[in-house]
Amino acid sequence: MTQAEQPVKIRVLVVDDHELVADSLVRVLSLEDDLEPVGIAPTIARAREMVASTRPDVVLLDQELPDGPGTDSIGAMRAHHPEVQIVMLTASTSDQVLTRAMAAGAAGFVSKTSGLGELVGAVRAAARGDAVISPALLGRLLARMRREPSAVGRDITAREAEILALLAQGMSNAAIAAHLVLSVHTIRNHVANLLAKLGAHSKLEALAIAVRENLVEPPA
């Protein structure tokens, strides 16, 4: 295979101040042919610098950092680099923290105790634009996000509303495409339109807004 034919790798930045954990994550990611760790940031400030300089596709972001909680940095990172997908690294984080991360635009969550396959799968799913969260956790978090509705999202189409309901069930783009007998490309276009209409940066943020605005019911 020539250099021009080499597949594009998913670039991953690890943000964690625990050196042993961060080094272990980088080693795991380095073993995968389609993943490329671009560095380790031990603080939010350093993470912002490295996101700008290394342009990762996915950021694995710890919540407990020396200069503040990871959730506080999601909005700024996504505002300056909306193409970056942020996956929270969680330990025993509360629903309140997770819903805050979800509303800020996180692509999802993965436990620090997860198996290697789950961690790698989460990075790949985030890079594809899929939400990284179990349906059970998704339903629990969405149920916490109700409020009085406004005019946000009232211009979504019937097809977009159908796709939004399937996203709320935890389905990926590929699963929705198979369910509706449409191409994945078509589903991606619909999802992009949904995010634009809801003013969201990720599927999870879109779902948070949609539930908050009573546009979709959280799964039972």
How far apart are the first and last residues' alpha carbons, in Å? 49 Å
Low-confidence runs? none
Number of strands: 7
Global structural class? alpha/beta
What is the H/E string?
A: EHEHEEEHEHEHHHHHH
How many strands, which pairing sense, and closed or not: the largest β-sheet? 5 strands, parallel
Q: Mind telling me the CATH superfamily name of the largest domain?
A: Response regulator
Bulk shape: globular
CATH class of the largest domain: Alpha Beta
Relative helix content: 40-55%
Strand order of the largest sheet: 2-1-3-6-7
Keywords:
two-stranded antiparallel sheet; 10 helices; 220 residues; Arc Repressor Mutant, subunit A; 2 domains; alpha/beta; Rossmann fold
What would your notes on this structure say?
This protein has 220 residues and is an alpha/beta fold. It has 2 domains: 3-132, Rossmann fold; 149-212, Arc Repressor Mutant, subunit A. Helix content is 49%, strand content 15%. It is built from 10 helices and 7 strands. The protein has helices at 19-30, 44-54, 71-80, 95-104, 116-128, 135-142, 158-168, 173-180, 184-198, 203-212; strands at 10-15, 35-41, 58-62, 64-65, 68-69, 85-90, 108-111. It has a 5-stranded parallel beta sheet, sandwiched between helices. Strands 4-5 form a two-stranded antiparallel ribbon. β4 (64-65) and β5 (68-69) form a beta hairpin. α3 (71-80) packs parallel to α4, α7 (158-168) packs across α9 and α9 packs across α10 (203-212). The radius of gyration is 17 Å and the shape is globular. The chain starts with 9 loop residues before the first strand and ends in an 8-residue tail after the last helix. The mean pLDDT is 86.
